Amino acid sequence: MILGSGKNIIVESPKIAALLQHNLFKLGVITSVMATSGHLYDYTFHNNNIVQQPINKTIIEDLRALNGQPIIIATDPDPQGDLIAEHIKNLTPDSEHGRCIFNDISEIGITLTLNRYNKGEFDFDQNQALKAALIKVTNLHMRKMSSKSNRNNYLTTTGISLAKQFDAVGRINQVQQRGFNVEGVQHVCNVPTQWHDANAATKVNPTITRDLITDRALSGRKLTVAEELQDAFINGRISYTRTDFKFLPSIADQTLSEYTLSGELIHHEQHLDFQSNTAHYAIYNLAHPITPIEYLIKEQNRTSLNHSFNDCSVMHFDSGSVLARTGSFIKNELTLSPQNEIAYLLASSKDTSPSNIELSAKKYSTLFFNGNHCNTKLISSTLKQAEKHYPKLIEFGLNHVLNELIVQQEKNIDSDIQIKPENELRTVKLDNIIEEINTNFSI
């Protein structure tokens, strides 16, 4: 029997929880799998104090009932997932907690992941959790500031990032297909019409969510990358995590051998050495590709990991770079929808989370556009208000500012995200963080 029996496993998605429970049962692992269905708490103002309030009281009470029992926390390995993990730990203070990350939930993947768990290879990341809390608190602070200005701007961390992108990059709503000869093979890509000729073509890195969203946005097609990846993951067709994540999947040996290296076995250490300082991301085919997005993943991965393949490349222009893939050159032009234009701009920003880009594109296409007409006055006003009240965000970017705050508050991490269980409306000890936000984001 695999070690892990008798423990409670907690994930975020109910669909993943159901399939994980099913496959664990087939493996003979006696355990219970529960889903949080997203965040457990949000932040709000109450009597001018920031407080933490429950989102789903039923799930919170179900988690409290596990107090004292062994718990494996398998939320997503991104800031949001790490914040949920800390909330679970605080709700069950008498439990033994372990961190686990399932890159794939096939029977083999579960077995290998639990073996890694039993070796203690996964850790909680409180800095990531604090970063997620800071983003929420910062947005709360911004909404209060924005309401004072009669909503002639849209001050949020995403709104500011998008306004910065519009200011720096300009409109990216007209694209055209261009073709290039790369090592004797025709590669095509959709490129903003204002971009000049390409400077160079380089080798691609392994597939990441951000690349897939950028490619989809410039194609003018419907933004359903996250949904398609989730479906492929649940059906055991790919191994991935929702965000850009720098660990190879547990089943990488078999995957890379069969689908990216022409049958030549490669081990984790060899792969890491081969890729040297490039990123290693967990999106790989676990089965022969069926859907279009699975074929894109296969083509990009095998090109990045084997010099024998030339399925795609990165085309570099003065204004940016895009993925180019083998295909017929038809030289078509198209106008991007507001959602696709925003998705491209957000995917090009270092201050956005890949798992939220498509949802944000849908939201901000109705805020920054009136139909297909771009509300340039609102974008300009948002940028001006951000420059006035949050100059460091404009100058350095969200991630840089948050990382600075985390370093300053490292000694207070535990208290910063602590829940006071005796309060129905739980106060979060973030006064010092708010003070830092006011100090760092104001003139």
Automatic annotation (TrEMBL):
Matches recorded under Gene3D superfamilies: 3.40.50.140
Matches recorded under SMART domains: TOPRIM (SM00493)
Highest taxon of the lineage: Bacteria
Organism, scientific name: Aliivibrio wodanis
GO terms of molecular function: isomerase activity
Transmembrane spans: none
Keywords in alphabetical order: Isomerase, Plasmid
Toprim domain mapped to chain residues: 6-109
Pfam families: Toprim
Annotated protein name in UniProt: DNA topoisomerase 1
